[in-house]
Amino acid sequence: MTRKGMTVQAFREMKSAGEKISMVTCYDFSMARLVARSSVDVILVGDSSGMIHAGYDNTLPVTVDEMIYHSRSVKRGAPDSFIITDLPFLSYHVSKEDAIKNAGKLVKEGQANSVKLEGGAYFCDIISHLQACSIPVCGHLGMTPQSINSFGGFRIQGRTETDASRMIDDAKRIEDAGVFALVLELVPEELAARITEALEIPTIGIGAGVHCDGQVLVLNDILGMDDSFKPKMVKRYAELCTLIPEALSSYSRDVKSSAFPDAEHSFK
Ligand code: KIV
After folding, report:
1. Mind listing the pLDDT tens digit for each residue in 162-190?
2. 114: closest CA among 151, 147, 139?
3. From the candidate CATH numbers 1.10.1740.10, 3.40.50.12780, 3.20.20.60, 3.40.50.300, the one assigned to the domain spanning 3-237
4. Which of 78, 128, 134, 257 could form a disulfide with 36 if both were Cys (CB 3.0 to 4.6 A apart)?
5. Mutate to test the pocket of ligand 1, among 58, 203, 206, 212 (most ligand atoms within 8 A of CB)
6. pTM for the structure as a whole
7. Ligand 1: which atom is nearest the Cα of residue 218?
8. Does the beta carbon of 219 sit less than 6 angstroms from any atom of ligand 1?
9. In this prediction, what percent of the chain has a pLDDT beyond 70?
């Protein structure tokens, strides 16, 4: 069972108690039902849906309506799980009004418990406005995928002392603005440890080492759905990219040999 009664307060309590937080992404009803049967603490409806489900090269084309669809489907499959849903690219950048309207849609229509946005101090004002409107916000620093064009690719961030200091400052400032947790993506583990140490809210790492207060991975990566994609930060816990085609080929063989449907699967 995913953690029942998970709340924004529980994030800090788990950090204080030294209890690590496990998070996975999820995008649809049937997988959400399976995640809900696991001991994973939190579900992230990530805008990685654009890459995983729609096959885009990056997350930029994802829309608010698509995130609502994914979020609502996940909530139906995992009604008792705590859900963080991503605000997609340009849904919170233009104005505070836009940010509140779009985050509000993710909560009202997408039934998210909270939203996640990418970026540092520049977004403090928006974060505190969302907070004031009772929309909890999770932060995201490091290799923030919505900035792929500025970063010039999926690259480790914070390698120089200047970049590292800026990231630490960003982390403290968005914590002050009210984020309840912070995702750190593709950050050297020593920097992630410094940020984790400097904050009261938990850090959730993806490619950010073991010193974070929790970890998040993309569900399809954990399950090994794509054998052509194996970045260093991913640990596969299953090889569905082999199991699924094998199962489908068995089915196809049975159809062709008339072994399926047999008496057990037919009606008199
Ligand atoms: O969209 C996503 O899946 C994410 C994770 C990579 C943290 O933001």
Report:
1. 999 999 999 999 999 999 999 999 999 99
2. 139
3. 3.20.20.60
4. 78
5. 206
6. 0.97
7. 3
8. no
9. 99
Atom of ligand 1 nearest to the CA of 185: 7
The values of phi and psi at residue 185, to 5°, are -115, 130
Q: Domain-by-domain residue ranges, the chain?
A: 3-237, 240-268
What pLDDT shows up at residue 230? 85
Q: Quick check: is 197 catalytic? A: no
For residue 94, what are its two tokens? 């233009």
**Ligand 1 touching residue 186 (CB < 6 A):** no
Rounded to the nearest whole angstrom, what is the distance from the C-alpha of residue 217 to the centroid of ligand 1?
Answer: 8
- Whether 180 and 204 have beta carbons less than 8 Å apart is answered as no
112 in ligand 1 pocket by Cβ < 6 Å?
no
Atom of ligand 1 nearest to the CA of 118: 8
What radius of gyration do the chain's Cα atoms show? 20
Q: Is the pLDDT of residue 3 over 80?
A: no
pLDDT single digits (tens) 205-260: 999 999 999 999 999 999 999 998 889 999 999 999 999 999 999 999 999 999 99
pLDDT digits (tens, 9 = 90+) for 41-86: 999 999 999 999 999 999 999 999 999 999 999 999 999 999 999 9
The residue whose C-alpha atom lies closest to atom 2 belonging to ligand 1 is: 46
The reported pLDDT for the residue numbered 5 is 79
